[in-house]
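Renewal narrative, Specific Aim 1. Our central claim is that a sequence can be written position by position from structural information alone. The example that follows is taken directly from our test logs and has not been curated for this report. It begins with the structure tokens describing the chain, in the order in which they were read.
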């Protein structure tokens, strides 16, 4: 049985309190994971603090940049190892993980190394009564030890999205991966040792949330800042924990994202993009679409094309090159998604396609599978239109005017992202600017320039990361005033 251990101060430790890691494909146990104790979390924090005061805190920006480039290159060299670990943990198709998860996970280190290397600072000259003047300049220092709480849907990508800028800015980290996806964060510890990142800079502790590693990290008084991606309820708990000590948080939380499709859209592009935004990664994408609003003249045609696309998705294991969709992450999440499938039926939805569990062959029978599902016919008050499901499903509704669709699309507690499909440039600008979201795509989906701000509005998050915006969280900006 594979053993996955904590990575603390450059060593793999912890053998007590193991828990099972099950495959989403078959529900069989594929590894045992060492749950970190409170003492082990404290040891990770102390190792991180020692590294800050020691070798990591003394190296130059140029040396730090070189090490982060080496980390990225070593991930790429061990691409197959990371790909195998990611697919084993998540069950997602290899075609998806090899195109998105692993290369983006590596590039996060290079992107933020470049940002830190090239970022400008403030400089002001000021007059003084004696006529000699003064100068003021901004100087960035690391915020300290950062607690990184990671989700399970894009484990390597979203973990390095936080670890990359944190290390680039000179911080050290204590990472708590999801208990569902422990392997790539652990494997990254091997990479850190291989390329010579000082001991204690990167630490990984495994476990759960309450009364486990997650709570031990977020409540630890020597964790200086906390960054989190996950559901809103967990984010709220982390925010409460961070209030003790007035520690800063960066939270990317839930979403109930809307796609808006106007009749003048490039129809084929809108179908292709919406199919991806609904069903990619089995719908387990924070930026994914669960509400689709289509202008009435093309509504019937759009629903028919979405039905055909959904029914053309082949469900299967990662290694099958024809697999278009994998399983959900766990039996627990499968039960949650299926409960919403039942809610939709109870609320009177018309099921266009799906709505159940597919028949899978062999050992896949007991996996965490659900059918890609499309509904129509529900009122805007329906739970499956209001609440985040995080599965391969969407409701499609017709609209008659720009004002109509903006009112419906914005009538939600979340505000993470939207996708707008139109060839009218003026309309694209108007609608994008009026949507209450952190990220608005026009005629695309999941197209990301990592230099741009990323984050959510309303209950979808607090703060922005990406490019120089990450520096605002991962550094303290001080002003130095020099009297001439």
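The sequence written for that structure reads:
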């Amino acid at each position: 049985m594979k053993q996955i251990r904590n990575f603390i101060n450059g060593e793999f430790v912890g053998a007590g309190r193991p828990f099972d890691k099950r495959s989403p494909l078959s529900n069989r146990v594929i590894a045992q994971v060492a749950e970190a104790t409170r003492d082990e979390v404290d040891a990770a924090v102390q190792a991180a603090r020692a590294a800050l005061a020691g070798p990591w805190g003394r190296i130059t920006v140029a040396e730090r940049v070189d090490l982060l480039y080496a980390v990225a290159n070593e991930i790429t060299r061990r691409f197959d190892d990371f790909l195998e670990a990611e697919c084993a943990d998540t069950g997602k198709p290899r075609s998806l993980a090899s195109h998105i998860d692993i290369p983006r996970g590596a590039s996060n280190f290079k992107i933020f190394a470049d940002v830190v290397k090239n970022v400008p600072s403030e400089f002001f000259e000021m007059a003084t009564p004696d006529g000699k003047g003064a100068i003021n300049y901004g100087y960035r220092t690391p915020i300290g030890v950062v607690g990184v709480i990671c989700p399970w849907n894009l484990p390597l990508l979203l973990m390095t999205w936080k670890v990359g800028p944190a290390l680039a800015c000179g911080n050290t980290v204590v990472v708590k991966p999801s208990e569902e996806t422990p392997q790539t964060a652990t494997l990254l510890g091997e990479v850190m040792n291989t390329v010579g990142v000082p001991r204690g800079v990167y630490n990984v502790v495994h476990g759960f949330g309450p009364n486990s590693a997650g709570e031990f990290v977020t409540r630890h008084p020597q964790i200086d800042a906390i960054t989190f991606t996950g559901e809103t309820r967990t984010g709220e708990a982390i925010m409460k924990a961070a209030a003790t000590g007035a520690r800063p948080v960066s939270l990317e939380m839930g979403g109930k994202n809307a796609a808006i499709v106007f009749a003048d859209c490039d129809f084929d592009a809108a179908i292709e993009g919406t199919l991806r935004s609904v069903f990619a990664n089995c719908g387990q994408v924070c930026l994914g679409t669960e509400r689709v609003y289509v202008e009435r003249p093309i509504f019937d045609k759009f629903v028919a094309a979405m039905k055909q696309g959904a029914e053309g998705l082949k469900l299967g294991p990662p290694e099958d090159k024809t697999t278009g969709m994998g399983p959900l992450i766990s039996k627990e999440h499968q039960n949650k998604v299926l409960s919403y499938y039942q809610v939709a039926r109870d609320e009177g939805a018309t099921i266009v396609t799906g709505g159940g569990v597919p028949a899978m062959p062999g050992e896949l029978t007991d996996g965490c599978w659900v059918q890609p599902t499309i509904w129509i016919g529900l009122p805007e008050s329906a739970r499956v239109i209001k609440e985040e499901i995080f599965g391969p499903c969407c409701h499609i509704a017709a609209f008659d005017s720009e004002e109509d669709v903006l009112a419906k699309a914005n009538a939600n507690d979340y505000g993470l992202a939207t996708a707008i499909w139109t060839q009218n440039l003026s309309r694209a600008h108007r609608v994008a600017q009026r949507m209450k979201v952190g990220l608005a795509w026009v005629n695309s989906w999941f197209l990301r320039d990592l230099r741009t701000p990323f984050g959510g509005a309303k209950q979808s998050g607090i703060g922005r990361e990406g490019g120089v915006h990450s520096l605002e969280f991962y550094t303290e900006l001080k002003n130095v005033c020099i009297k001439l």
